[in-house]
TrEMBL record:
This is Na+/melibiose symporter. It comes from the Bacteria. PANTHER family: MAJOR FACILITATOR SUPERFAMILY (MFS) PROFILE DOMAIN-CONTAINING PROTEIN, PTHR23528. Residues 12-27 have a biased composition (Pro residues). It comes from Okibacterium fritillariae. The chain crosses the membrane at residues 51-77, 89-112, 124-142, 148-171, 183-205, 211-231, 268-291, 303-325, 334-353, 359-385, 397-420, 432-451. It is a multi-pass membrane protein. InterPro entries: MFS, MFS_dom, MFS_trans_sf, Na/Gal_symport_CS. GO terms for molecular function: transmembrane transporter activity. Residues 1-41 are annotated as: Disordered. The keyword Oxidoreductase does not apply. Residues 52-455 form the Major facilitator superfamily (MFS) profile domain. GO terms for cellular component: plasma membrane.
Length: 455
């Protein structure tokens, strides 16, 4: 699932989230395959066309405009209309959607792998997901109460989430090693700027709930439709499978044997640790800034907004720079580690910052690290993904757990660290929290150095 929208960290969507033509100009040196990836039938050995790359970038951009806009602004506006003063409902709504994705992800990924149609395996899921996504936007726009609003969000997770998931699975199916870093960097850039466009569109339509949801959705429909119609996928009706699906077999798709796929396991663990540290760092940003600057939480909103704007450029610098360089130098692991170290350096700088200037420096440094880690780690994931020919959807979905579990668990653990050394006046130990967050991300980067099949 690699970077589903539900997995996008508050301070930096990427993500996670991340085609044959001519032979690649550069390939990684042959090494022992320790991940069970198929040989001749693995992802294409030829470079993808520019058309595929740009439609992939635009497709993911469109999904994020359609899908992240509700998280960023539209859901909050509708909830304030339906249940004034009950902001906690937003957590219930978004949490329910994330839970549904966790429960259905590997199942839907497996079904995508086994789909046999004239349109191929991935495009039918994009088409149905897009239609369901549009229905979800209408449901949220017209919801008469918070329960229906939440149901609409769950439909959005299932619909737009499947579109994004199958776009990313298509990358696993078709991208050669020599282009994975570049494409991951470009899609990372697209998903950074997409929420800004979505918020601008929705912000001008707050008086019309239907247009506030549907106009960003139209952007998603346009670009996904272009991808579906212009990017050919091979007819999958002739595919055969050794095993039939049963309840037991489906449940087995939610787990994997780390000993059988050691490199995939290491990348999964590295991503889990990085996003655990990231979530510890970002969950309490507004409260930390207010505490450090000695002002009410409401007064730090302009600072966080400004940081968000500059953070887009910082994250994009890390994503595109790291992605392109990792392809050019034929190295992944060192850039993943560098991204983790940059994040940790920024987190520690922020933790120790005595004024606004160093808060900015620390925050922007973490953004560069997030961008670099997310883009190159996505390319590394595609390099080591097991059974690419038959089970790419399943393993991409399992990868989503490496982001969704930390996002669910870290906020519950953070108060333990905040309480250590807390003062009687109520001051929390944000310094310790940020230092621990940085240390965890570095461990995540170090874990990736143990990957054997990719340099």
């Amino acid at each position: 699932m690699a970077k589903q929208p539900s997995d996008v960290p508050a301070a930096s969507p990427i993500p996670p989230q991340p085609i044959p033509s001519t032979p690649p100009t550069a390939t990684f040196p042959p090494v022992e395959d320790v991940n069970g990836a198929s040989g001749a039938g693995s992802p294409a050995e030829e470079k993808v066309s520019s058309l595929y790359i740009w439609l992939q970038v635009l497709g993911q951009f469109g999904v994020f405009v359609a899908f992240i806009t509700p998280i960023a602004i539209s859901l909050s506006i509708r909830l304030s209309e339906l249940a004034p003063g009950r902001e906690e409902y937003l957590g219930y709504i978004t949490g329910s959607g994330a839970l549904v994705v966790m429960l259905t992800g590997p199942l839907l990924g497996t079904l995508s792998d086994r789909t046999r149609t004239r349109l191929g395996r991935r495009r039918p899921f994009m088409i149905v997901g897009m239609l369901l996504g549009v229905i979800s936007l209408i449901v949220m726009a017209l919801a008469p109460n918070p329960i229906i609003l939440g149901a609409g969000w769950i439909l959005a997770q299932l619909g737009w989430g499947q579109v994004l998931g199958n776009l990313q699975i298509s990358m696993a199916d078709r991208l050669p090693e020599s282009q994975r870093g570049k494409v991951a960097g470009l899609t990372g850039f697209a998903t950074q700027i997409a929420p800004v466009f979505g918020v601008v569109i929705a912000g001008t339509l707050t008086g019309n709930s239907l247009l506030m949801f549907l106009l960003p959705g139209a952007v998603g429909v346009l670009f996904v439709t272009l991808f579906v119609f212009l990017i050919h996928e091979e007819d999958s009706r002739g595919r055969t499978f050794d095993e039939k699906l049963s309840v037991k077999n489906i449940l087995s798709k939610y787990v994997f044997n780390p000993r059988r796929y050691p490199d995939f396991s290491l990348v999964w663990l590295g991503r889990f640790l990085f996003y655990f540290g990231l979530t510890l760092n970002t969950t309490f940003t507004a409260f930390f800034f207010a505490s450090r600057l000695g002002v009410p939480v409401t007064e730090v909103a302009p600072i966080i907004a400004t940081l968000g704007l500059f953070g887009i450029f910082a994250t994009t610098l890390g994503a595109i720079g790291g992605g392109f360089l990792s392809d050019k130098l034929r190295r992944r692991r060192v850039f993943v580690l560098t991204g983790a170290v940059l994040f940790a350096a920024g987190a520690i700088t922020t933790a120790l910052a005595p004024d606004v200037t160093l808060l900015y420096v620390g925050s922007l440094t973490t953004s560069v690290g997030i961008g670099m880690f997310a883009a190159v780690d996505q390319a590394l994931l595609l390099d080591v993904l097991p059974e690419k020919d038959t089970s790419a959807g399943r393993f991409m979905s399992i990868t989503g757990f490496a982001v969704s579990i930390p996002q669910a668990a870290a906020p519950f653990l953070a108060p333990v660290f905040l309480a250590i050394g807390a003062t009687a006046a109520g001051d929390k130990n944000y310094t310790l929290l940020y230092i621990i967050a940085g240390a965890i991300t570095i461990v995540g980067g170090l874990v990736v150095l143990r990957v054997r099949s990719v340099r």
